Amino acid sequence: MNIKSFEEFKAEFETELNQIPQTHKKNLIENEIKEVENYIRHEQTKNIHGNFFKNNSLINTSNAFSVFKLSISPLARKGFSDAFNNYILRGIINEETECYSQAFHFGKYYLWLNEFRDQLNKKPTPKKPQLSHKQKILALHYYGVNLNKYDNVKTAKLLSQILGVGEENTRKYLSYVAAGKNDVRTKQNLEKVAQLFENIDDTEVSNKIKSDLDK
Q1: Which of 38, 126, 137, 197 is deepest in the core (most CB within 10 A)?
Q2: How many Cβ atoms are within 10 Å of 185's Cβ, its own excluded?
Q3: Domain coverage including residue 109
Q4: Residue 97 neighbours by CB distance under 10 Å
Q5: What is the mean pLDDT of the segment spanning 73-102?
Q6: 93 in a domain, yes or no?
């Protein structure tokens, strides 16, 4: 018996996967998982006379829709399935015979398919907007935090700790945050902060920023 390795199963599937449109890749993975499960559940196959095939006879029960091709002697199928299930359910590796060794590699293939499917189904985590020091100060200003209520030095000390930014630059930026065109209230910074508020569905603030951009 020529043992087909996990790497061979994987390479054949990836080759097939790369040949189909992105919109159909998930379907192929789902079908392959189902075909592996059907193969493991398949009972010993009888011939037309109702007798089991002889030990040296091989039968390929993978169908035309499965990427993998595998032939196991009908009389060895129960041991093959048991070794497969022991590996995927309990992590037990039995390579005492070629049949059991083949079941181990087939089990690795099945687990890899499931991991592949899970990765494909995983929704990408939306990237949090990375705000610069100036943009953070602008965001607080437009959100309604009165940054001029207290002494700039004290405010800068507090904000530098809260925002994790430099105290000296914070004090400098506080002087420019309220109005006018300057290094803090640039078009790029205002657009980035407007996008931040749009992302949290605060259209009132984002519209206010856009209005300031037009001035």
Answers
A1: 137
A2: 21
A3: 6-121
A4: 14
A5: 94
A6: yes
Q: Do 117 and 29 contact (CB within 8 A), yes or no?
A: yes
Q: Tell me which residue has tokens 């992302």.
A: 199
With a cut of 90, say whether residue 120 has pLDDT above it. no
Q: How far apart are CA 165 and CA 117, in angstroms?
A: 42
> CA 10, 86, 90 angle in degrees (round to 5)?
95
Collect all residues with Cβ–Cβ distance below 8 Å to 84 and sequence separation of at least 6. Answer: 40, 103, 104, 106, 107, 110
- If one counts the domains in the chain, the total is 2
What is the reported pLDDT for 17? 95
Tokens, residue 6: 């996990």
Inside any domain, residue 128? no
Compute the distance between CA of residue 188 and CA of residue 144 in angstroms, rounded to an integer.
Answer: 21
> Does residue 21 share a domain with residue 102?
yes
Q: Are residues 87 and 170 in the same domain?
A: no
**How many other CB atoms are found less than 10 A from the CB of residue 29?**
21
Same structural domain, 35 and 113? yes
**Rounded distance between C-alpha atoms, residue 193 and residue 107, angstroms:** 51
For residues 191 and 164, membership in a common domain is answered with yes
